Amino acid sequence: MRSRLALCAITVLLVGVASAKAFETRERDAPWRLAGIGRDGRTLKLAYEGGGCLGNDGRPQVVEGKRRVTIRVRQTQTIPGPGEGCPLNLEVLAVRTRLAQPLAGRRVVGGPRFDHPTFSRRVPRLIGLHRRDASELLRMDFFRFATIGRGTTVIGQSPAPGTRIRRRLPRMRLVLGSAVRTTDVKPIRGGNQFLSHNAWRPRTTW
What is the pTM of this model? Predict the structure, then answer.
């Protein structure tokens, strides 16, 4: 009887060890993309790759410079063992990171990059982004857009941030100017259009 119990205990132990070795975890740099910026001008909204054996624990690591902000997103990945597999599903996960200083038109760089659309039902906030980062974001989400003015920083946009998207994607209009120092916004002529308080006011009306 004792020998049978000992044999069962050894069997359970071996099964547990085999199960533990079947799946291992490791850290990786998750592909990510910029998905918007917060009202405070410091909080960046990021989308990163998930699903399958990829964890939902994205952890942004940020290095800020005068002209650019470099980002990497660390993520836990589960590695299946022999005879095991991962679910075949792709997810677009969201994470936010707050900068020490307002973005104010600095480029957002780093990688690896993720070019999957977010399928958000709200118009993203773009005020404070560099024009290249804003253009890249809109293209990945299939927005049509036009720019007004000169400059490298988005200081106004239409439709307003957070506008609910109904059936068709709206055509975006971006006002370009110098770097935004404040993130407070106020409506300008046209109703559903916004500029920062200290933004350059374009002569062109929409």
Answer: 0.75
